[in-house]
Amino acid sequence: MGFNYFPRAISSYGNDSALLSIFENKMSVKTVVIVSSLLNMIIGVGQVAITCSIFDFVVMNRQFYSMPNRTILIESKWTYFSNLFASLNMLVCMWSLHRVYDNVSKGYEQIGKWARMKHTLLSLLHLLFLIAFTAAALYLCINFSLMAQTVGMFTENSEPIQFQDAANWYYKRLYALAALYGCSTILSLISFCAQNNCSEKPRKETSSKSRDYPKTQC
User: Out of the domains of life, which is the source (predicted)?
Assistant: First the structure.
């Protein structure tokens, strides 16, 4: 009778170690997602600010063009794409923060069957949004870089001097906006990878209890 307590103590210690590793893994994923999402939201505010700075009344009225063919250097349509992306991307970042907090505070195994199905569908939808916004940020980064390159050709030896100064002014802001979209691409990709692979190791360790966990728990 007395020797039965020792194996139980070892078993209890093993369970505590497994729970601790699960908690540490969740906390590390939570930290990565929170930091990347918050930085992405801050960058989104910068994207809106620089977009409003670039697309002023001159650009919106199609008055910034090159001679003699009156070629429009900055199309006004990009202000709608830029502001729409920045706004929706911040909403997706808020969704990421909400999901991470919800999944850490309540274990997946504590919810019912239908709630699990809903949870899985929302997880897949969220990951699709993340990868879509990553691709959209990369697309905008490339387009604003090309736009800056086009405007940059008029930053030197252009006439009149007012046009050259305006080209230099737009050139700097276009490249700054392209850099922000590049950062947004990287942060969205980090958030996608972290949430797509989170808790993979703990699920394998606890697979004896349940083997139907989705791959998008966090």
Answer: Eukaryota
Give the dihedral of Cα atoms 41, 36, 38, 87; nearest 10 deg. Answer: 20
Q: Are 214 and 197 a contacting pair, CB within 8 Å? A: no
SS3 content of the chain, % helix, strand, coil (to 5): 80, 0, 20
The answer to whether 34 and 195 are in contact (CB under 8 A) is no
- How would residue 155 be classed by pLDDT, with cut points 50, 70 and 90? confident
pLDDT of residue 79: 93
Quick one: tokens of 172? 């700097």
Q: How far is CA 14 from the centre of its chain?
A: 37
Whether the CB-CB separation of 200 and 215 falls below 8 Å is answered with yes
Residue-by-residue DSSP string for 140-175: HHHHHHHHHHHHHTTSSS-SSHHHHHHHHHHHHHHH
Say which amino acid occupies 91: L
Cα 54 to Cα 155, 163, 177, distances in angstroms: 16, 15, 9
What single-letter amino acid sits at 128? L
The model's pLDDT over 31-70, given as tens digits with 9 standing for 90+, comes to 888 899 999 999 999 999 999 999 999 899 888 888 878 8
Distance of CA 4 to the CA centre of its chain: 52
